[in-house]
Specification:
This protein is an alpha/beta fold. It has one domain: Rossmann fold (3-Layer(aba) Sandwich), CATH 3.40.50.300. 47% of the residues lie in helices and 17% in strands. The chain has 8 helices and 8 strands. The strands form 2 sheets. Strands 2-3-1-4-8 form a 5-stranded parallel beta sheet, with helices on both faces. Strands 6-5-7 form a 3-stranded antiparallel beta sheet. A hairpin with a 7-residue loop joins strand 5 and strand 6. Helix 1 packs across helix 8, helix 2 packs across helix 3 and helix 6 packs across helix 7. The protein starts with a strand and ends with a helix. 26% of the residues are buried. The protein binds zinc ion. Zinc ion (ZN) binds next to loops. Zinc ion binds next to loops.
Length: 225
């Protein structure tokens, strides 16, 4: 079984990972797994995993790395059993988030014998721009959609794709964003160190002043490198 490209998309909150994966969704050559969206949806539906995740978040404790890797591995195994998957690029949005997740996931890929090309695409953005974007960010409340909009460019407060209402993300408060940013910087340093020691390629895209379509083009150009 051969899979062409497996991409881990890394970047702080509000760096455009959601925008980018939404553009990829419209392109049939991509399969996307968004850890954040998956967790929010599992909680809403109330699956076993969802209830477990909810318990962790209610206790304000982190979801264990092995649980996350199990969830992703299950998703991945289901995907690669499908037709034509070897012609697609699989994108993990916001995963692996920690060095332990990265280690466990690479072990998993090696174990199942998939011939893969694993590469990281890392979005670089200034802290100021993250905070600016966080304040103007609105999310489609339809859990099957979850498109992110910027208030500044919005004509009306409903989703252009599915028509659902747009809401502020519950975790987009100033303190929350600052906290998530700090955590991201800490954990991503360790993840990048791990990749460097494992000879995994990391491609960087500076996104602070990049428009979403330019980001998409830039992203695609990194895939063929
Ligand atoms: Zn929508």
């Amino acid at each position: 079984m051969a899979v062409n490209n497996i991409i881990s998309l890394m970047g702080p909150p509000c760096s455009g990972k959601g925008t980018l994966t939404n553009l990829c969704k419209k392109d049939r050559t991509f399969e996307i797994f968004s850890a954040g969206n998956f967790c929010r949806k599992s909680i809403e539906i109330g699956t076993d995993i969802g209830n477990l995740i909810l318990k962790y978040s209610q206790n304000k404790s982190l979801i264990p790395d092995d649980l996350i890797v199990d969830v992703v591995s299950d998703w991945f195994l289901a995907k690669i059993s499908k037709k034509n998957i070897e012609t697609k690029t699989i994108i993990f949005d916001g995963f692996p988030r920690t060095a332990k997740q990265a280690t466990l996931f690479l072990d998993f890929l090696n174990k199942i014998g998939v011939n893969f090309n694993f590469k990281i695409i890392y979005l670089i953005i200034s802290d100021e721009e993250v905070l600016k974007r966080a304040f103007s960010r609105l999310l489609c409340q339809n859990k099957d959609c979850q498109i992110v909009y910027s208030e500044n460019f919005l004509k009306n407060k409903s989703c252009e794709v599915c028509g659902s209402d747009l809401i502020k993300r519950a975790d987009d408060s100033f303190e929350n964003i600052k906290n998530r940013l700090k955590k991201f910087i800490e954990s991503s340093k360790k993840v990048l160190n791990f990749y460097a020691s494992s000879n995994i390629r990391v491609e960087k895209i500076e996104v602070t002043n990049l428009k979403s379509l330019d980001l998409f083009e830039n992203f695609k150009s990194k895939l063929i490198l």
